[in-house]
């Protein structure tokens, strides 16, 4: 759980807050009117967050690539009539239908 502190108090205690984050392993959430405004995290935490963002982006790209390749597969002959599919994508080649 993160330690929460109002921005006015955080200004006065910045050096102490930095020590708590760096040496105490804490995370500090700075608030304004009770709402989270910003957070102080260690450089190691920031690196982990950035690495996670990169991993998520790569995974998302893989999913998009997989779905795109599936979407380009042609239908087997007669599938459109068998399942009552009336619509036809203008760019799709006819496959025995």
> Could you say what the CATH architecture of the domain at 3-40 is?
3-Layer(aba) Sandwich
State the helical fraction. 40-55%
Uncertain spans, ≥5 residues at pLDDT below 50?
A: none
Order of helical and strand elements: EHHEEHH
Structural class, from helix and strand content? alpha+beta
Shape: elongated
For this structure, the CATH topology of the domain at 3-40 is YefM-like fold
How do the strands line up in the largest sheet?
Answer: 1-2-3
The overall strand count is 3
**Spatial extent as radius of gyration:** 27 Å
Strand content: 15-25%
The largest sheet, given as strand count, sense and whether it forms a barrel, is: 3 strands, mixed
Alpha-carbon distance between the two ends: 61 Å
Mean pLDDT metric: 82
Task: Tally the helices.
Answer: 4
The CATH class designation of the domain at 3-40 is Alpha Beta
Key features?
alpha+beta, YefM-like fold, 3-stranded mixed sheet
Brief digest:
The chain is an alpha+beta fold and 97 residues long. It contains 4 helices and 3 strands; from the N terminus they run βααββαα.
Q: What does it look like?
A:
With 97 residues, this protein is of the alpha+beta class. Among the domains are: 38 residues, YefM-like fold, CATH 3.40.1620; 29 residues. It has four helices and three strands; from the N terminus they run βααββαα. A three-stranded mixed beta sheet has the order 1-2-3. Strand 2 and strand 3 form a beta hairpin. The longest helix has 29 residues.
